Structure of TetR/AcrR family transcriptional regulator:
Amino acid sequence: MYEKILDIAEQLFMTQGYQATSTRQITEILGVTQPTIYYHFKKKEDIYYAVMLRLSKDIEQNLTKFVEDPTQQLESKLISMVEFLREKHPFNFFVMMHDVQHSLPKEMTTKLYQLFSSSYKGPFIRLLKENREKLQASVDIEFAVSQLFILMASYLDNTNPKDNISEMIYLYLHGIYKE
Amino acid sequence: MYEKILDIAEQLFMTQGYQATSTRQITEILGVTQPTIYYHFKKKEDIYYAVMLRLSKDIEQNLTKFVEDPTQQLESKLISMVEFLREKHPFNFFVMMHDVQHSLPKEMTTKLYQLFSSSYKGPFIRLLKENREKLQASVDIEFAVSQLFILMASYLDNTNPKDNISEMIYLYLHGIYKE
DNA sequence: GTCTATACCCAGATAGAC
DNA sequence: GTCTATCTGGGTATAGAC
């Protein structure tokens, strides 16, 4: 049941957000009563943390594989990694970021942000550092990765009609300006 | 009182979000009782719409002035416009986008998205179209403006430690890649 | 482990007095 | 126009039976 709760909670939290997802809704889908949750978790926010922990472990492992792939170049690695996030994490990134920053208690925010930074951003930062010589000298890598995540958010968001990740990566790498 | 409600509601909605802002909180700040709101507005979501309507009119007028300024070039116009949004709209864009997409009824979402597209995005689209010859031929302008807004969101968000808008615009225009 | 019952709180909204 | 009083419904969480 613990894992089942996480499965449903993951889906609901990531699509509707933390506040909009009630413990009742989770248990209704599972066909059990609402207090059942409180045998497995002490508080609602603990469910959120457990969901994020499970998710981020999986994400980090897989992203790292792409970074270490010796057969691919920077641009195609980036595309693969973003494609992977789209498949594995077909949620609205905005919802997640919003929750981490606004829907949860402060301490939880800190813990979640650390989790997110290492698992999600970490592999991208490593990738760009290993390709430092291909980047403009003035670029701040941590900043550049933040920007990429923001862009990705719009991509993994279904409100964006476009579906061409390589186009997004191209703009990210080369900008919109004619040289 | 109507305008006063909008003033307070604007601030609360834009910082805390729609769901986290209660009618009680708004009226407490104003020093009146909670039902007072329902003399001026039929539903809570009507307050949100009125706030967005007032805000977006102001934003559109001002952004358009920058676009029409004959003394500035593309890059400095972009910087001015984003700076203006930061001053006038010192809110978390994510919060607003999250609300528009997830916290409000579907019909309202549509209305708000149209409002946002014309008032906020409109002037930027116009600016890029008027500078078409300076952009890479492959760039889709509507898409490029969407990307800019996403980037801006991270900028107007206080979680981003960096505070240099021109750096963001530079990356947006030129990308991170060494040519 | 899951149930029933329920406490408690806070939300949006309405009725009707002043 | 704003008030008091109140309805209704939703949420998280707990106690204790089975």
User: Anything to note?
Assistant: The two ends of chain A are 58 Å apart (CA to CA). Residues 1, 32-33, 35-36, 39-40 of chain A lie near DNA strand C (CB under 10 Å from a C1').
